[in-house]
Amino acid sequence: MKNSDFIDRDLDVLWHPCTQMKDHEFLPMIPIKKGKGVYLEDFEGNRYLDAISSWWVNLFGHSNEYINSKIREQLEELEHVILAGFTHEQVVKLAERIVKITPEGLTKCFFADNGSSGVEVALKMSFHYHKNRGSTRPYFVSLTNSYHGETLGALAVGDVELYKETYNEIMIKTLQTPVPENDSLEAIHQPLLELEKLLEERGHEISGIILEPLVQCAGSMHMYHPFYLKGVRRLTEKYGVHLIADEVATGFGRTGKMFASEHAEITPDFMILSKGLTGGYMALSIVVTSDEVYREFYCDYKLQKSFLHSHSYTGNPIACSAANATLDIFENENIIEVIQPKIEYINQKLQQFRHLPNVKEVRQRGMISAIELEGYRPEERIGLKVYQYALKNGVLLRPLGHIIYFMPPLSITFEEIDKMVEVAYGGIEGLNS
Ligand SMILES: *Cc1c(COP(=O)(O)O)cnc(C)c1O
Fold first, then answer.
1. Of 128, 131, 150, 332, which sits 20 to 30 A from 386 (CA to CA)?
2. CA of residue 198 to ligand 1 center, whole Å
3. Check: CATH 3.90.1150.10 for 3-63+337-430?
4. Are 130 and 204 in contact (CB under 8 A)?
5. CA of 149 to the centre of ligand 1 (A)
6. What is the pLDDT of residues 398-433, one digit of tens each?
7. 339 and 110 in contact (C-beta within 8 Å)?
8. How confident is the model at residue 432, as a pLDDT?
9. What class is the 68-332 domain?
């Protein structure tokens, strides 16, 4: 079989995510036959180094033998069971482990199907918690430039105009507070003052503040200082507003620690986990919260106090077995330590980009790094040019506009880092020739 066997058939019946389909009149679709390690391979034997972890989900390579074997074992036992009134080994194990590795004080796991649905769960729980205590608080606060997913609630608390503007008339109520301009310590003071002012004036109407700890990934890989997060925790406690940490993208080692919240040594009231949770195998998410939140819903059966939210595939055993296998790898292979020299190596490799005339800024937090270009108009679609150049040279990059970024699987080797960086360099340098 060839690539062309699938391209026309695909375009006949599929509508792809986050895509202007007309682009595919000139941009060839790439049918992938298989994956191994950081590489994807198409039907004609071309290989692509997956420098974006297939939308930030993959941690330990494609077709990972250990995760494969654990999923196979689970398949022979149980594929799925309703999670209301029933439970199973994989979900119990996974919840125990998540409680153990997340910050102290997070003790209860609520399962959902993907990042966006996890965000919806956290928002509803936070609102409902206050309502159960006799206080109706219809607002959520989010940071400017934030991203929390595409379902209506998640979209409403986000701030990426490109995804949201069209739907403004049907959004829930949100308030926005400025994110620090950069990752310096000086940049946190003004935003914290503004947040305090907002909470002082309107705290009684606000259920919670939701944020992406340290890195706003879909928001151009924008980064801020951990002390801002510390400051937000202090202010939310002072004003009795929940802190919801959306670690969907930043969780599971991406920032150099297991969770980005650890950099600020804080415990949020809710932590949302997905993407890397299953090592990039299956859709699954968990909202982890505290006993205090849990107890506010715990009472004799009264409909309006119970959290009556569910998804058909909640806590799917196969997805949970992939997640347990992923956590096994973190433990058995000491991954957080193993990635430290890779982070340092990427840092060294990034320095060369600073000398290019079209590079405005280079930034990094752990295994996430970004090169921001300047001097181009949006119509030039330079991101697309770098994307096409990289594909031709065997690397899958997927720039966010004029931001070229790397978020490779944690299992990437030093040689593979060389290739990834070299190709990105060629693509950026070539833009001006
Ligand atoms: C990807 C993402 C989501 C949405 O997750 P989906 O699984 O795509 O629904 C939410 N929050 C953040 C920070 C994300 O990066």
1. 150
2. 26
3. yes
4. no
5. 5
6. 999 999 999 999 999 999 999 999 999 999 999 987
7. no
8. 82
9. alpha beta
